[in-house]
Amino acid sequence: xxxxxxxxxxxxxxxxxxxxxxxxxxxxxxxxxxxxxxxxxxxxxxxxxxxxxxxxxxxxxxxxxxxxxxxxxxxxxxxxxxxxxxxxxxxxxxxxxxxxxxxxxxxxxxxxxxxxxxxxxxxxxxxxxxxxxxxxxxxxxxxxxxxxxxxxxxxxxxxxxxxxxxxxxxxxxxxxxxxxxxxxxxxxxxxxxxxxxxxxxxxxxxxxxxxxxxxxxxxxxxxxxxxxxxxxxxxxxxxxxxxxxxxxxxxxxxxxxxxxxxxxxxxxxxxxxxxxxxxxxxxxxxxxxxxxxxxxxxxxxxxxxxxxxxxxxxxxxxxxxxxxxxxxxxxxxxxxxxxxxxxxxxxxxxxxxxxxxxxxxxxxxxxxxxxxxxxxxxxxxxxxxxxxxxxxxxxxxxxxxxxxxxxxxxxxxxxxxxxxxxxxxxxxxxxxxxxxxxxxxxxxxxxxxxxxxxxxxxxxxxxxxxxxxxxxxxxxxxxxxxxxxxxxxxxxxxxxxxxxxxxxxxxxxxxxxxxxxxxxxxxxxxxxxxxxxxxxxxxxxxxxxxxxxxxxxxxxxxxxxx
Amino acid sequence: xxxxxxxxxxxxxxxxxxxxxxxxxxxxxxxxxxxxxxxxxxxxxxxxxxxxxxxxxxxxxxxxxxxxxxxxxxxxxxxxxxxxxxxxxxxxxxxxxxxxxxxxxxxxxxxxxxxxxxxxxxxxxxxxxxxxxxxxxxxxxxxxxxxxxxxxxxxxxxxxxxxxxxxxxxxxxxxxxxxxxxxxxxxxxxxxxxxxxxxxxxxxxxxxxxxxxxxxxxxxxxxxxxxxxxxxxxxxxxxxxxxxxxxxxxxxxxxxxxxxxxxxxxxxxxxxxxxxxxxxxxxxxxxxx
Lengths: 562, 289
What we know:
Strand content of chain B: under 5%
Shape of chain B: globular
Structural class of chain B: mainly alpha
CATH superfamily of chain B: MetI-like
Number of strands of chain B: 0
CATH topology of the largest domain in chain A: Rossmann fold
Distance between the termini of chain A: 44 Å
Largest interface: A-B, 40 and 32 residues
Radius of gyration of chain B: 23 Å
Number of helices of chain B: 10
CATH architecture of chain B: Orthogonal Bundle
CATH class of the largest domain in chain A: Alpha Beta
CATH superfamily of the largest domain in chain A: P-loop containing nucleotide triphosphate hydrolases
CATH class of chain B: Mainly Alpha
Distance between the termini of chain B: 8 Å
Helix content of chain B: over 70%
Oligomer: heterodimer
Strand content of chain A: 25-35%
């Protein structure tokens, strides 16, 4: 069997401000027909640059050298015109962010048609039929109507389906998926990965899947290429990589992903039953008004949090899990009083938040702080680290003198594991992990008792994620904090939380000690959520995949029978 | 090394590296200095007619280094006097409209809801007023004065800025650093002026660089209609206007005021570009780390 794609001595160099940066170093790999290859690495490992160079999509200051043979043809040095005949037609690509890779001003039908219009000689009607057929293939309900909808009318998972559909329109021989599910919920991720596998079988193509998540690889790839700093660490079959890794880096990655993986035992509940309740939420409901269609139409509301009651005990870590849109962030913002509840009340350290006036509220704010998800947008790009860290001090302790502010800020930055040389820098000069450390330091400035982490580690790489979690746990121990840890990443929650609540569509579906919820979930939704987490264990994943496939087939048969 | 700096200090440091901006800045300063003290160097008055030198060519011998206009008035002195009016209108009217526009837009955008709706409808109402009608109305009520030109131009220009700033603020409001500041107990006013406004500066500076020239030209348009400065006082816009009419017979009457006007506009563009880059920490490369 000949190989579909052979890359030899592939190098990608970037020149920026006179400096030369090697993003990919002397990489050689191959891909057989009908095979799926997983390229694994952390951000900055050059995994995206590798495929971008194959597609000829490098930034203008980048240059690829070496050789890439696709379908018995050298494609690295092709000019744009020749390349356009291949990309889109013989190689399809799916990007990470389904929000930004679809143009919101053009209907998805028009966007999909563009591909066929450029690569085939079909007429308008035939193109439309082909598009609808493909939308149907990726299991979009009512493809006829969806053809005319716009991307913002679809959910993230639906958009990614549309992206896959348009990549598959020309029946490519190779589908490249660059972190296709990173921006999606676990349950949606499961569906999309299954879909890619199914399409691979159906159209007999090869797939290159780029990801940082070994669980995703275990679920959907046959061969694996591990990259670090642009260098190949190891390449081999799925079972060899997972059960018999050779390179030290692969072992490290595997260890880290297993460490926070679902098969570790959760920590014993450290919560002391006698501990006092720091936060008490009673029948909390939050509604957002939906913009009215016309002036006279009735005002409708979106219920983001629906009748939630819960207690948070002193010194515990409470995990809040759920898909996006389940209201977990809204809940956090309510506790922080960044939005007002529609109904219900929140008691914090014995004080009812809605009864406090502005001055008392400020006093209470000191006791609760927050760390947000996106490390870059949670720091003001125009403020230095010092200004960011000193701000809470200035607002909570007006009149504090400059020397003691400086002392506190320096102590805080050392506490989160950074040096004082960072104080004069701006956020864009820091990495994601460093930014998140600064955000944590800022939250600690007023010496809070309750720390809310709203997806605080979701945007970080696996190794940085475990560093930040270690940091948070260390600080929690030292300062005896109570934490509310909001995440969609079940593995992390399982590892660090004492108790968990599972939310769905604004309601609490299940709550209890972590051990109970994870090992003997009562609700079907919790079970489904737990099942959909990809585990870095190929055998287990295949077993799960086959189970799902059988279930789907059974469902289909039932439908047909009816 | 640890360095504690503020946005403004850092920006000044970066601006100093930008040769074009620095040169433009120096040129502007020279020009301002010249229009203030220049007329004192000349033996002629702004409204003084030299009967022997009507429409005379520039010459050092006669003392009319820029020549004279068709009424025999010294062009050098007139350009200097015109510069006072033009620069004053350009800078003051722009500054006033920027301060009002940015505060208004940022507050409307940040507070949102009903306040936003009321504030922006007020802007819409003002927008609907025809500019010329507005100016004529002011003239009728308060009589003609240079102050009214500032007011008229400023009153119209801040509307644009307010709208742009509001839109950008809505965008910034959703950023997590704003939520973090609220959780950090920072008051609304402080959030607007410490977090929102600095992030708007890039946009505003570009807008200012476009507005100053525009305002200078609007003033000349008003003067042309007889609503702006009146003879014997003058402005660059008015001088260019006159010069254009006699371009064929006495080109210097167009060239000199035009040169000053064009230089000013160039300078503002370079300063604007430089300021925008300097105020954005992302565009700076630091030497010390």
